[in-house]
């Protein structure tokens, strides 16, 4: 293979460029600055579908070309690829979430958002935006997402009222939970909150999880959205803890109720969105991000994802109406975990899960 | 003597291609495994002093269980694959008529092309809670929803992927064994089963071991099957490594686990291989 | 007594063959049914509604087409390199007499036992150390690494029953070493080489572990493309694809059988009937 696909793509693009120059010298095309090209990393399935739809709108007024790559491993997999070749990287814009934003800010890979271009950032609530040590805004949040406990109402009519209930014998093997590195340890944080702890005081949470594990309550531990969706579809598990994406897909096929307003626990909120890597064509990248952050586009973007828009004026999918909180409910039920801290302990928590929890669930 | 020089010449291309491809990554991984790791960062700390802490962490006795699980589950799947695969290979080579033989070989090659992801989903559906064979695990006295049920699914997933591999390898072996030996034993009045075990199986031992090695290697290095049907209960060493490279970005720890896994597997493999070779020399006599 | 033991043996033998066939066929049947499943989740089997949505999706999405082209090019070229180099090495080792031969053999076969994720990540850092950022080159490095041992292993296995004396006989009858190799050893090893190439091709084509780390934005393999789509939500396109592949494989096998006879591919062995 002497001619790689990339060379080929490059040659093809150069060819189009040449043709465009030819046409413009003939006065057939209005001369424009050379089109920039962006490589954007996005999630598959609904995410990429809606993104392509919005891109088509974007390209009506902007000649920036966009190539997509899909996250194929965890979102840290793309990070591994960037790390291996940094600072030479092909990637420009990444669609990731708070913990990965934090990791990339810590590596100093991101460009601060230029608010003179990303004008739509103004109306996005400030607490959604991740900042670096200097206080500069580093992300363009597009979605409010969350991780919640919930259950299948058809299998468990009426549900449960507190996480403590889940220790009862009738829940043996009925729980479907994430591997701790998925959702960045929020499962353990949730268990910690139940017993009076939090992410910095996770011991009570570990104890609670150990109790669940040694009683055989945990029926499956999932590592991706599709695994969770499949697991909940088998009907083998009635209760789970997962992100809105997994619940949204499950809710399309089965009656699902979220336990996001428990008196003794919280629902976890975080943001997903874009960030721009250093070395990217900044203007094009920011224009691209800005277009997605525009209220109307923000509404279209979140509609099929089961996540909430970050623009206050955008409407949310009616199906998820009570999944998120009213401003008055926020302090009571919502929890904003310290993702910078969580991503710093993730390695440790992962090892701890392997050493302390898996042996317990394995024994059954 | 021209023979040694020719055989060395035949080896050179492989050495030129494979040695850099193997040694380069492995040396870099060995180096990575000695770098210190700071939580929350991506990969090892380039500037830090080299350390053995990554190895110390996985020396925890709890990690031995993952190695044991991997090797045990792999062994189970391999054993089943041989028990099922050998009779089929024998059937195809010795008993099947030309049409049957064509059909079966064609079928075996065809199923090779079934993606492992699809295989595993298909097995999960067949033997899952709503599947037509959901009670299968009861035959073994295992509840499908128990951790042992998860292990059974992993075994079935691995088994299904290795079956065509094993059968096709054994067909190659059996074809090169003289059928007259079996015929002779039978015509001298030896029972069928005795002939089968004492002549056919015994003579195919090198090939059986060879097929076993391929199947076993495939099983213990598998990532997808435990990931999709292990339910988080059955976690292979590959999965631990994958989490480190792909999720927590602790490359040094992943590299350290890789080195340990590699040393154990290659030693195991080398031992088995010497076994094959000693039998092979016997068979050649 | 003997008759009873033989009958028992016969029953056990045939039930194992039947079990094998059943267990091999089940996933294929389920995959075929799944590929027509109208649901977007893995629900009770069999499904009640059927559709062509997964076939449509595969045919309509250029993302999959790009992945398919890359996978075919990659699997074909990696297998080609691995087959030539691996078969020669196996034959070389078969005749070799020097010390340390076992060690070389074990080393060359070792990618078989090393988890693919390790090889993938290793090649990623190796390639970037060499300044190779191109996805196709990286993938080729990784895939030669994983396909090579299959060819070498099966070639060696098929040589097991072949006595070195055949080759020596050819030599003593005046054949040149290369000629003896070409006319005696190679045809006998053919089954193994072809089987190895097929295993190698399938391994490369179905690989996830290595490719996951080596793809780049413009060069990604089909399984990685599918896995990426499947992470976020269940996607049975891969079932549709597998079915198409099985059909294609069966067609190729039937055509080969008509044209050349299947035995030409699998060989008949030394004692072929």
Describe what you observe in this structure:
The complex is a heterotrimer of chains A (364), B (285) and C (273). Chain A is an alpha/beta fold. Helices cover 40% and strands 17% of the residues of chain A. Chain A has two domains: 35-144 and 270-320, 3-Layer(aba) Sandwich (D-Maltodextrin-Binding Protein, domain 2), CATH 3.40.190; 147-269 and 329-363, Periplasmic binding protein-like II (D-Maltodextrin-Binding Protein, domain 2, 3-Layer(aba) Sandwich). Chain A has helices at 5-25, 46-58, 75-85, 98-107, 186-194, 203-214, 225-234, 244-253, 282-293, 295-302, 330-333, 339-363, and strands spanning 37-42, 65-70, 93-97, 140-152, 175-178, 218-222, 239-243, 256-259, 267-276, 308-309, 334-335. In chain A, strands 1, 2, 3, 4, 5, 6, 7, 8, 9, 10 and 11 form an eleven-stranded mixed sheet that branches. Chain A is globular and about 65 Å long. Chain B has a domain at 71-235: MetI-like fold (Orthogonal Bundle), CATH 1.10.3720.10. Chain B contains eleven helices and no strands. Chain C is mainly alpha-helical. The longest helix of chain C is centred in the N-terminal third of the chain and has 34 residues, at 2-35. Chains in contact: A-B, A-C, B-C. Chains B and C meet through helix 1, helix 3, helix 4, helix 5 and helix 6 of B and helix 1, helix 3, helix 4, helix 5 and helix 6 of C. Chain C: Belongs to the binding-protein-dependent transport system permease family. Chain C: One of its GO terms (cellular component) is plasma membrane. Chain C: Residues 68-256 form the ABC transmembrane type-1 domain.
Secondary structure elements and pairings:
The complex is a heterotrimer of chains A (364), B (285) and C (273).
Chain A: H1 5-25, E1 37-42, H2 46-58, E2 65-70, H3 75-85, E3 93-97, H4 98-107, E4 140-152, E5 175-178, H5 186-194, H6 203-214, E6 218-222, H7 225-234, E7 239-243, H8 244-253, E8 256-259, E9 267-276, H9 282-293, H10 295-302, E10 308-309, H11 330-333, E11 334-335, H12 339-363
Parallel strand pairs in A: 1-2, 1-3, 5-6, 5-7, 9-11
Antiparallel strand pairs in A: 3-9, 4-7, 4-8, 4-9, 4-10
Helix pairs in contact in A: 4-12, 5-6, 6-12, 7-8
Chain B: H1 3-32, H2 53-58, H3 61-95, H4 98-112, H5 116-127, H6 147-175, H7 179-187, H8 192-220, H9 224-229, H10 237-247, H11 251-284
Helix pairs in contact in B: 1-11, 3-6, 3-8, 4-6, 5-6, 6-8, 7-8, 8-11, 10-11
Chain C: H1 2-35, H2 53-60, H3 62-95, H4 101-109, H5 116-129, H6 135-159, H7 164-172, H8 177-206, H9 211-214, H10 222-232, H11 237-259, H12 262-266
Helix pairs in contact in C: 1-11, 2-11, 3-6, 3-8, 3-10, 5-6, 6-8, 7-8
């Amino acid at each position: 293979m002497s001619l790689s696909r990339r060379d080929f793509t490059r040659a093809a693009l150069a060819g189009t460029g040449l043709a465009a120059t030819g046409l413009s010298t003939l006065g057939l095309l209005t001369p424009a600055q050379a089109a920039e090209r962006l490589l954007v990393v996005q999630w598959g399935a609904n995410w990429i579908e809606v993104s392509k739809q919005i891109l088509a709108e974007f390209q009506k007024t902007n000649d920036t070309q966009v190539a997509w790559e899909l996250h194929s491993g965890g979102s840290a997999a793309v990070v591994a690829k960037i790390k291996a070749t940094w600072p030479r990287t092909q990637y420009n814009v990444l669609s990731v979430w708070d913990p990965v934003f934090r990791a990339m800010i810590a590596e100093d890979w991101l460009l601060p958002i230029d608010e003179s271009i990303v004008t739509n950032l103004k109306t996005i609530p400030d607490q959604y935006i991740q900042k670096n040590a200097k206080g500069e805004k580093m992300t363009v949040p597009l979605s409010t997402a969350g991780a919640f406990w919930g259950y299948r109402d058809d299998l468990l009519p009426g549900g449960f009222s507190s996480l403590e209930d889940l220790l009862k014998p009738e829940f043996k093997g009925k729980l479907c939970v994430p591997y701790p590195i998925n959702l960045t340890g929020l499962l353990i944080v949730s268990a910690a909150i139940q017993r009076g702890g939090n992410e910095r005081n996770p011991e009570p949470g570990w104890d609670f999880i150990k109790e669940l594990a040694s009683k055989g309550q945990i029926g499956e531990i999932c590592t991706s959205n599709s695994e969770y969706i499949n697991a909940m579809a088998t009907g083998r598990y009635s209760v789970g803890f997962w992100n809105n994406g997994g619940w949204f897909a499950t809710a399309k096929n089965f009656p699902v109720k979220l336990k996001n307003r428990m008196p003794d626990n919280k629902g976890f909120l975080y943001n997903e969105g874009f960030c721009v890597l250093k070395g990217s064509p900044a203007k094009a990248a920011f224009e691209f991000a800005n277009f997605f952050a525009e209220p109307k586009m923000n509404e279209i973007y979140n509609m099929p994802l089961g996540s909430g828009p970050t623009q206050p004026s955008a409407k949310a999918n009616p199906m998820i109406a009570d999944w998120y909180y009213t401003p008055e409910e926020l302090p009571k039920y919502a929890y904003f975990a310290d993702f910078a801290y969580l991503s710093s302990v993730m390695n440790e928590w992962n090892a701890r899960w392997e050493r302390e929890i898996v042996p317990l669930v394995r024994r059954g | 003597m021209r023979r040694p020089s020719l055989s060395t010449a035949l080896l050179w291309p492989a050495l030129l291609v494979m040695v850099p491809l193997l040694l380069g990554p492995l040396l870099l991984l060995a180096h990575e495994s000695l770098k210190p790791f700071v939580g929350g960062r991506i990969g090892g700390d380039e500037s830090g002093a080299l350390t053995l802490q990554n190895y110390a962490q996985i020396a925890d006795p709890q990690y031995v269980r993952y190695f044991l699980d991997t090797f045990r589950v792999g062994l189970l799947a391999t054993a089943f694959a041989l028990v099922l695969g050998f009779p089929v290979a024998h059937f195809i080579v010795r008993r099947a008529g030309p049409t049957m033989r064509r059909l079966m070989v064609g079928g075996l090659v065809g199923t090779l092309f079934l993606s492992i992801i699809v295989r595993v989903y298909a097995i999960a559906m067949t033997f899952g809670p709503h599947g037509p064979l959901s009670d299968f695990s009861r035959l073994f006295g295992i509840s499908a929803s128990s951790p042992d049920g998860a292990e059974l699914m992993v075994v079935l997933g691995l088994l299904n992927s290795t079956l065509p591999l094993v059968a096709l390898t054994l067909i190659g072996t059996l074809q090169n064994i003289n059928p007259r030996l079996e015929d002779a034993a039978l015509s001298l009045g030896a029972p069928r089963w005795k002939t089968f075990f004492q002549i056919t199986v015994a003579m195919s031992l090198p090939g059986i071991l060879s097929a076993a090695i391929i199947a076993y290697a495939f099983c213990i290095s598998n990532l997808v099957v435990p990931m999709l049907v292990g339910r988080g209960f059955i976690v292979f060493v590959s999965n631990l490594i994958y989490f480190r490279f792909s999720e927590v970005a602790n490359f040094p720890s992943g590299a350290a686990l890789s080195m340990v896994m590699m040393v154990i597997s290659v030693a195991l493999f080398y031992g088995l291989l010497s076994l094959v070779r000693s039998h092979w020399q016997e068979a050649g006599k | 007594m003997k008759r009873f033991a033989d009958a028992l043996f016969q029953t056990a033998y045939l039930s194992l063959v039947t079990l094998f066939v059943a267990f091999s066929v089940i996933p294929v049947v389920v995959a075929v049914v799944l590929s027509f499943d109208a649901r977007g989740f893995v629900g009770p089997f069999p499904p009640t509604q059927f559709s062509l949505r997964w076939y449509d999706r595969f045919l309509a999405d250029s993302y999959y087409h790009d992945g398919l082209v890359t996978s075919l090019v990659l699997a074909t070229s990696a297998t080609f390199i691995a087959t030539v180099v691996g078969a020669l090495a196996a034959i070389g080792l078969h005749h070799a007499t020097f010390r340390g031969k076992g060690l070389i053999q074990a080393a060359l076969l070792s990618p078989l036992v090393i988890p693919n994720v390790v090889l993938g990540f290793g090649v990623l850092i190796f390639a970037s150390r060499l300044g190779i950022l191109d996805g196709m080159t990286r993938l080729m490095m990784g895939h030669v690494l994983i396909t090579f041992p299959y060819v070498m292993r099966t070639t060696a296995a098929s040589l097991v029953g072949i006595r070195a004396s055949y080759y020596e006989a050819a030599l003593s009858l005046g054949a040149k070493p290369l000629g003896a190799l070409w006319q005696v050893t190679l045809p006998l090893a053919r089954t193994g080489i072809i089987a190895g190439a097929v295993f190698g091709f399938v391994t490369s084509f179905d690989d996830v572990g290595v490719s996951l780390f080596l793809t780049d934005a413009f060069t990604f393999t089909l399984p990685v493309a599918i896995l990426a789509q499947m992470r976020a939500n269940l996607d049975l396109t891969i079932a549709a694809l597998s079915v198409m592949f099985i059909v294609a494989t069966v067609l190729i096998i039937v055509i080969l059988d008509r044209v050349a006879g299947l035995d030409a591919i699998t060989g008949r062995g030394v004692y072929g009937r």
